[in-house]
Design goal:
Elements (H helix, E strand, L loop, with lengths): L4 H32 L3 H6 L12 H8 L1 H32 L7 H13 L4 H10 L7 H4 L6 H12 L3 H9 L4 H12 L1 H17 L2 H6 L8 H9 L8 H7 L5 H23 L3 H10 L2
Helix pairs in contact: 1-15, 3-15, 4-8, 4-11, 4-13, 8-16, 11-15, 11-16, 13-15
Length: about 290
């Protein structure tokens, strides 16, 4: 089937535009990586642009030898795992009853929950509440206050509403309770939205640093993002530059900053392709039929 000249020009322009978009999106993270594996002298001279110069892994060896990096990495994994589990459990238990047509007061409770999307007590009341509950300087201060995202709950509720009601009626005739229906019917049919919400929550916890900066006092409990912030924003590595140059001559503070950035984003980049297939179905159902 022949295509017109206009169609070929349009397709070519689309390909060029998309390739440019891929380059603009991908290049920053690629540049950070090649700087992290390049020699410090080349980085200081500005010789690194598209390819690593004086390629070496000394920066990563130095980073992983730092006990604070390993400890903060473990803390981030712990906070992300526990926080995401709490998020999914609480969001599911909130979305399921609100998705039931025969739930009395469904509109009122939905309105009260949605109200919190637009109005909150603010930072100081939240801090005083966490302090009064005895959660200061603990993991729970990072995972409990944000146990439910109202927006994610609405998407999950809308997904649950699209499950045929006849399935629940059949289960009820067989003597199934609401909890049994949730576990045996709703959750097995909701893998797309559960994977999508789990990814959203996990990325949020992984990248979060502000709650830790407010509620945590002990450096041993800091997540990786706090360490990264101190390196990039506060310039903590500058005071160690002489020590670094004495141990690894080809490593500078810039190399270490970029290496920690790569280490921080690598898990999310590796996990995303495995659940990307659920994103379109999980998000679009909730967004189009809300």
């Amino acid at each position: 089937m022949k295509t017109s000249l206009g169609s070929r020009v349009f397709d070519t322009a689309n390909v060029i535009f998309l390739l440019g978009l891929v380059f603009v999106t991908f290049y920053p993270i690629y540049y950070i990586f090649i700087v992290s594996v390049s020699g410090g002298n080349a980085v200081m001279r500005g010789d690194v642009s598209f390819w690593p110069v004086d390629f070496n892994w000394q920066t990563y060896l130095l980073v992983f030898e730092d006990p604070s990096i390993g400890r903060s990495y473990f803390n981030t994994i712990l906070y992300t795992t526990v926080g995401t589990a709490i998020n999914l459990i609480c969001t599911t238990l909130c979305a399921y009853p609100l998705s039931k047509r025969d739930f009395y007061g469904r509109g009122f409770f939905t309105l009260m929950i949605v109200f919190t999307m637009f109005f909150s007590g603010g930072l100081i009341p939240s801090y005083l509440l966490v302090q009064s509950l005895g959660m200061m300087n603990t993991m729970w201060a990072l995972v409990i206050p944000g146990a439910i995202s109202v927006w994610n709950m609405i998407i999950m509720r809308t997904f649950f509403q699209n499950i045929p009601h006849e399935l629940y009626e059949s289960a009820a005739l067989d003597g199934a309770s609401e909890f049994t229906s949730l576990v045996r019917i709703t959750l097995p049919l909701s893998k797309p939205v559960m994977a999508t919400m789990g990814m959203f929550y996990a990325v949020g916890h992984w990248n979060s640093f502000f709650p830790a900066m407010i509620y945590l006092d002990e450096k041993a409990k800091f997540p990786l993002q706090i360490i990264l912030r101190n390196m990039v924003v506060m310039g903590e590595m500058s005071s160690q530059s002489q020590e670094i140059s004495g141990v690894f001559a080809s490593v500078t503070a810039t190399n270490i900053k970029y290496a920690v950035i790569i280490i921080a984003v690598a898990p999310i980049l590796l996990i995303y392709p495995f659940i990307q297939k659920y994103f379109v179905k999980g998000v679009m159902v909730g967004s189009l039929k809300g």
